[in-house]
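__Record contents__

***
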Amino acid sequence: MKLLLRNGRVIDPACGRDGRLDILIEGGKIVDVGSGLRSSDAREIDIAGKVACPGFIDMHVHLREPGQEWKETIETGTRAAAAGGFTAVACMPNTVPVNDSRSVTEFILSRARELGCVAVYPIGCVTKGQDGTELAEMGDMAEAGARGFSDDGKPVRSSVLMRKALEYSQIFDLPIIDHCEDPDLVDGGVMNEGEVCTRLGLPGWPGVAEDVMVQRDILLAEYTGGHVHIAHMSTERSAEMVRRAKGRKTRVTCEVTPHHLVLTEQAVETYDTSAKMNPPLRIEADRQALERALADGTVDAIASDHAPHHSDEKRVEFSLAPFGIVGLETAVPLCLDRLVRRGVIPLDRLVELFTVGPARILRLAKGTLAPGADADVTVLDLERRVKPDASRFASKSSNSPFLGWELQGAAVMTIVRGKVVHDALAGGPK
């Protein structure tokens, strides 16, 4: 089937394109992008007043399947992705069992083909069982379809293993995605270490626990020539270290989350477990530093770190609650409202952070509307007002500190390989 999107503002950073254009799609591919396109047998959709972008990619999500399907499944997680404007997601390996083998990677891809409505790219473990003692079968997982390696939820604690992982991963030209945390320095902390945690009587988690591992990873990447990606960066010092390393041409990339860009440790003042996340919310100076890192090009991608949990798991004492929040359905509105509308970064930079940035990191042939590319398209309405409502989430979980926030700007249509998988203008999922 042919599809013709007409009269939208098309922003495609990969091609340097920004203008009022039409997009012609056929056979799941982009056929043409230009003015006044015509096709007698195409379904036409007028998107005047809207913005059409390459399909957004969330490179850091937790789909929980296999093993924790009461929190999320590949089916519900990909529906949430589509509702949030994402045409592709990369899922972290801390499932049950963990994704440390070809069989689990193949299972995830099989379920995604069967039940998913967006593209799913598995991330394999760095170490067997995520136990930090022996490298996983990275070659088998890469051959099966893994697009990177991470022990996410746990750091690669051993510098020897991290060195080996960075050396070995170069064979497959895939990144090592590290959750940067020194467990000895964290020492049971549950929120940012500082004045607020002292007042609340909660164990503190110092920012330096992230910083020392970021610096170690940068040094090892420089030494080995491997590609290290810093997941959910949260501190000013980490951002500065990445900035300087990039200046030395080190193969280091990084991502930040919407929640670290718009919230600080003050969100924990009421012991709200929906504000408990890993790494924890930091101070205002850190938040502002992350904004600067977005603006100057230090940051390569924005990722939601979508971490669904059942409400019963979060409805406990703060110290006992699991870390994490859902983010697939709030990430784009938060970024449009708090970053673009408020002038932190321009719209084309935000599109870059959700498209060509993650595509380059994961070596995906995605993130562009060039003719011949997969017809993955995210359509934005910059004027649309939304208020996140748990009862309307496609996700199984609703652990979010953003419920009820009034935001301006949202994804209103998601197209995957030429198929409309979500259309808010027509009332929801297709």
